[in-house]
Specification:
Layout lengths: L2 E6 L2 H6 L5 H11 L5 E7 L6 E6 L2 H4 L14 H7 L5 E5 L1 H12 L8 E6 L7 H11 L7 E7 L2 E6 L4 E5 H6 L6 H4 L11 E4 L8 E5 L2 H12 L3 E4 L3 H28 L4 H8 L7 H5 L25 H12 L8 H5 L6 H16 L15 H6 L2
Parallel strand pairs: 2-4, 4-5, 5-9
Antiparallel strand pairs: 1-10, 1-11, 2-3, 6-7, 7-8, 9-10
The chain binds flavin-adenine dinucleotide and iron/sulfur cluster (SF4) (3 copies).
Flavin-adenine dinucleotide binds next to helix 2, strand 2 and strand 9.
Amino acid sequence: MEYLQVKSTNPEILEGGENGGAVTAILLSLLENEDVDGILNMKKHDDVYDGMPSYITTPEELLETTGSLHCAPIMTADIIAKYLKDSKIALTTKPCDAMAIDEIIKRNGLNRDNIFMIGLNCGGTVSPLKAEKMIELYYDVDPKDVVSEEINKGKFIIELANGEEKDVKIDDLELEGYGRRENCQRCELKIPRKADIACGNWGSSKGYTFVEINTERGEEVIQNAIDKGYIEVKEPSEKQVAIRKKVENVMIKMAKKKQKAQLEKEYPSPDELQDILTRCIKCYRCRDVCPICNCKVCSLEKEYLQQSPEEKPDPLLMHGIRMGHMAFSCINCGQCEDVCPVEIPLAKIYQRVQLKYREETGYVPGVTSGKPPMYSPDKEEVAE
Ligand SMILES: Cc1cc2nc3c(=O)[nH]c(=O)nc-3n(C[C@H](O)[C@H](O)[C@H](O)COP(=O)(O)OP(=O)(O)OC[C@H]3O[C@@H](n4cnc5c(N)ncnc54)[C@H](O)[C@@H]3O)c2cc1C
Ligand code: SF4
Ligand code: SF4
Ligand code: SF4
């Protein structure tokens, strides 16, 4: 049972679900059967630009979380490592979440047995602030009038309160500096195969979620959800499986093209890079948000690196240290770039280093099994 098309049997889930509502139905099955203590997924708060991670413990709350939020790039890996480490949880994971969780597990920061990962295929996310601006500029509507959005067939589509739909080609938006975040444009992992199941719409029949089953636990959970009446399933045809593979390959090819353009052709020269990095105000937000930076005691806090008791290390020294400690595991999630108050293109810089390291070692963070070749055993002592 490698691929299935899955549909919820609950009309409310079907109505709100992005595709067949399989994700919500499976989460409901896990919650109601007490297989997990809670669920971490993404909930729309004020509007479509306000997707927030939510820890859910009741079916009623869960039913409010159906649908995909493409303007919610926030990640869940760091949250579970920091706050839910000892709980048994299920969570929705984009490929970058799944990669981050895999790297945290390698650093002994999480126990895989406690986590049920429902993967979501991912073509990319849009920064919420940029999305509002982009909608004003290219769709000529008040961003507050948008009730839902989706990315489909190369277009970013919005639906307004009056039912009207408007779309613009993602390529056109990206040429103007809008559309998907730059790191997402370069992201080459489209299907999270380290998750127990990976869910998406590529290749699926209308009203169904296309599910790839990746682990034995994934198979068990699907079987339980079938047996207890939460979902109905049908097998995809060979043609549907082939379509999904074809789209995945096209997306990977596009990402590699963007890597070449953004990390080689348009990449700053060493002098420019030095200037860019000296903009850093040493707020440490990039370190704090990075899911790979999860040492108990950060080297940057060491006394000998402080220039004076009040002053933090020089930005170049700081990034040099961070780079040496984690760039080989950078998953290009873009969180550092999103939070940097002086707009340093951090994900670009760190991903470029990772790709050079990958060329030498073959290590793909969040995908290759085992620890990265340069991983220091000393770091293990400080990781939880
Ligand atoms: C940003 C994004 C991009 C995607 N791109 C593709 C794609 O290119 N190709 C493809 O085949 N599929 C893609 N998907 C997956 C697809 O949109 C559906 O999520 C999937 O098919 C499951 O549908 P469903 O009806 O079973 O989910 P539902 O039952 O509607 O459940 C959706 C679940 O996803 C969670 N969720 C919503 N937004 C996010 C988010 N930003 N981060 C984490 N969890 C979230 C919700 O909380 C909910 O639990 C993408 C999903 C997201 C979130
Ligand atoms: S980094 Fe990749 S997986 Fe993460 S949101 Fe962007 S495209 Fe999706
Ligand atoms: S360095 Fe930035 S892009 Fe790389 S893993 Fe950390 S937060 Fe993500
Ligand atoms: S977030 Fe930006 S300003 Fe803050 S420490 Fe990191 S690079 Fe420097």
